[in-house]
Design brief:
Strand content: under 5%
Largest sheet: none
Order of helices and strands: HHHHH
Distance between the termini: 19 Å
Number of strands: 0
Number of domains: 1
Structural class: mainly alpha
Shape: globular
Length: 94
């Protein structure tokens, strides 16, 4: 995914790192880069909000503090697939 605007951090990289960012599993400097990207890129901010919501729903559904690793991995793969499908639809000529 790309919003088409120039950013210091590429949109795809920012979205790939969203779960690490949400979970606080990245160095502070990387967190700052993702945060800066989200502040200037509305499409990525919307995607971040969606992934944050999914994480919250999963946490409530399984009644656990952390999402099980296998569920998290399947979810990440599925979200990436959906993101690619949506990006392809956006760039197809009518």
């Amino acid at each position: 995914m790309s919003c088409g605007e120039p950013h210091e951090m590429d949109c795809a990289k920012a979205l790939d790192d969203v779960y690490l960012y949400l979970d606080g599993e990245m160095p502070d400097t990387d967190c700052a880069e993702v945060r800066a990207h989200l502040e200037e890129c509305a499409p990525c901010l919307r995607a971040y909000g969606l992934e944050q919501l999914v994480k919250t729903v999963i946490a409530r559904s399984c009644g656990c503090e952390e999402t099980p690793v296998d569920v998290r991995e399947r979810l990440i793969v599925r979200l990436r697939t959906v993101r690619i499908e949506l990006a392809q639809r956006e760039y197809q000529p009518e």
